[in-house]
Design brief:
heterodimer; A: alpha/beta; Rossmann fold; 12 strands; about 30% helix; about 25% strand; B: mainly alpha; 16 helices
Chain lengths: ~270, ~350
């Protein structure tokens, strides 16, 4: 069956200028304030990494951006609309999400899981058609999980599993891709594979990417923009090579580390 | 695409089609056997002639006495199997069963009270049962919820709720002297003495439940995902859980109102069906309808045969077969359930 493998996804509707903006966002768990008036504009067509220590509020911010939590004050705007007013299904047609440490119950094959990515576009009457199949094939191809398509999820390795979840998100064919610590718990080989894949998605298909990352060097090398959080406040944002300094690292993580400049770029010596 | 993919998919589809055909054939054969078990015998040809062409006193007797029983066993079996499938999807728990977690005994309790108190509202007994089933389900769900649903906690709470409603039913039947025949049948899970009126009642409620279930297959599949992942696909997790639970409790309660408490069927049938046709609910649900019908009809027919002229209630038979099966499942997958 001839399938154009490297065909990019169908062009996203080019109506209003695509834009995701966080405006004066605050959130508390009870009396514990985790985010205080965060403001940030996600650079369209770029890769943004959110950095911060445990408890800095980065996970909460991710949950707010994925509509798993509702902001108590402030807004998150997608193309000028408050995402609270966007139906989950419409949001899923524009923003795809890769959650952390994701699992599935029972023995479901890779192909079926990736196929679930088409859910936001299906209705009781509209069943998967050739276009849906093409996108599922494309997503499996680009994440290199096609050879496991008939394998049950439980038989995959950690790196393969993560690629399946990314494939599912890609099958949604959205303009935005949000990832929560996509490399955590993976061997270094898979970490690099996943980050290269994310970079490639951004470069080839113009997908706007926002991810929460743990590793400063990965953030430095695979993103165009950093959002640094501490105690629920934005303490720095901008181009990683410009802002990531020993002083910022100390403010972020309470630890003194050296930043080295080499012919291959900047590195944080994480020891 | 690997060239083998379409061929492999065709093989899988063919296998499923053959399994469906075999099951339906077995169901038809079992139907004729079930109609003929007992003191009166009619062959398939005589039966069809007697029903559609010319009056036949023998066929007429069988038609009034045995056929309703056979149809009721099949309908109730289908309803209980589907109830099990849906509860297992909602609770992410392959050992959930309307009998084990107390939904059936809640329904039976309400049905017993309704039968004894308002005998004239006979046609509405299933609705009372439904209310009882919902109450039991809400109790189990609410009491085992602790930021998530641990499979084992559901079973433990379910066993307690089941014991409570079974006890309440016993108390009530003791007070009323235990001589109400309708009440006794609900308690024992016995399909004897059923009429075409019962068929009529059961048929419409089960039909509604099964049709509703046909619209819920995609949600049932997606519930295998984590809640946040399902949400990220734009599907409401709570709404899905609510809808599926509602239909599951409806089917189990209706079946209980007519045939009484029958445990383990909702556990055994989906389990075997998953081994045969896989876990995709678009295939699993239709297959369980047929396999559930077959299983309860088989249990009822065996119950009439083994100790003839006495009868063993199909609920008793299912419990005898289902108990060991349940333990087998628990032991085999201990790693995944004992969390």
């Amino acid at each position: 069956m001839p399938v154009e493998m490297d065909a990019p996804p169908a062009p996203a509707p080019a109506a209003a200028p695509a834009c995701m903006e966080i405006r004066d966002l605050s959130f508390s768990y009870g009396s514990n304030r985790v985010l205080s008036e965060i403001s940030f504009t996600v650079p369209t067509g770029g890769v943004t990494s959110i950095l911060g220590s445990n408890g800095s509020g980065k996970s909460t911010l991710f949950y707010l951006m994925t509509k798993n939590l509702r902001p108590q004050s402030g807004q998150i705007l997608l193309d000028g609309r408050d995402i609270r007013n966007i139906r989950a299904r419409d949001y899923a047609q524009q923003v795809s999400i890769v959650n952390q440490a994701n699992t599935i119950n029972g023995d479901i094959t890779v192909e079926r899981i990736v196929g679930y990515g088409r859910t936001p576009f299906l209705t009781m009457i509209r069943r998967p058609g050739p276009e849906d199949e093409r996108l599922v094939e494309w997503a499996m191809q680009i994440t290199d999980v096609r050879k496991y398509r008939d394998k049950p999820f439980s038989q995959l390795s950690g790196g393969q599993r993560q690629r399946v979840w990314i494939a599912m998100a890609l099958a949604q064919n959205t303009r935005y891709l949000l990832l929560d610590e996509p490399t955590t718990y993976l061997d270094i080989r898979y970490q690099v594979e996943i980050l290269r894949l994310i970079r490639r998605l951004n470069e080839e298909f113009g997908t706007t990417i926002v991810m929460v990352l743990h590793d400063m060097n990965q953030a430095l090398h695979y993103s165009d923009h950093l959002l640094c959080l501490r105690d629920g406040h934005v303490i720095a944002q901008g181009c990683p090579h410009e802002i990531l300094s020993p002083e910022l690292i100390t403010r972020l993580y309470d630890v003194e580390l050296r930043v080295l400049n080499s012919e291959h770029g900047r590195f944080v010596l994480q020891i | 695409m690997t060239p083998a993919a379409p061929a492999r998919r065709r093989t899988a589809a063919l296998r499923t089609t053959l399994l469906f055909a075999a099951l339906l054939a077995a169901l038809i054969v079992l139907f004729f056997i079930a109609v003929n078990v007992g003191s009166l015998q009619v062959g398939p040809l005589q039966l069809i002639r007697g029903l559609f062409i010319a009056y036949d006193p023998l066929v007429s007797t069988v038609f009034d006495l045995r056929i309703p029983r056979v149809i009721i066993a099949a309908l109730a079996g289908a309803a209980l199997a589907i109830s099990g499938v849906l509860l297992q999807a909602v609770m992410k728990n392959p050992i959930a069963d309307p009998g084990v977690i107390g939904v059936s005994s809640g329904a039976a309790f309400a049905a017993v009270i309704a039968t004894a108190t308002f005998p004239l509202l006979y046609f509405f007994t299933p609705l009372f049962a439904f209310a009882g089933g919902l109450l039991a389900f809400a109790l189990v769900y609410g009491l085992s919820w602790n930021g998530g649903l641990s499979p084992l906690r559901i079973i433990l709470v379910g066993v307690a709720i089941n014991a409570m409603f079974t006890g309440l039913t016993s108390v009530f039947t003791s007070y009323s002297g235990g001589n109400l025949s309708g009440v006794a049948a609900i308690v024992d899970g016995n399909i004897a003495m059923k009429t075409w009126g019962d068929v009529n009642t059961l048929f419409w409620y089960v039909l509604i439940g099964l049709v509703a279930c046909g619209f819920l297959t995609r949600r049932a599949n997606l519930l295998a995902l984590e809640d946040k992942t399902m949400r990220s696909l734009g599907v409401s997790v709570n709404k899905s859980r609510l809808l599926l639970s509602f239909v599951a409790v409806l089917l189990a309660s209706i079946a209980t109102a007519i045939v009484g408490v029958i445990g383990f069927l909702g556990l055994i049938v989906p389990h075997i069906a998953r081994l045969l046709v896989g876990s995709d609910h678009r295939v699993l649900i239709p297959f369980c309808i047929a396999l559930g019908a077959f299983t309860l009809l088989l249990a009822d027919t065996l119950g009439r045969t083994i100790a003839a002229p006495y009868e063993i209630a199909s609920g008793v038979l299912m419990a005898v077969a289902g108990g060991p099966f349940f333990i087998f499942l628990l032991r085999r997958d201990r790693g995944s359930y004992a969390s």
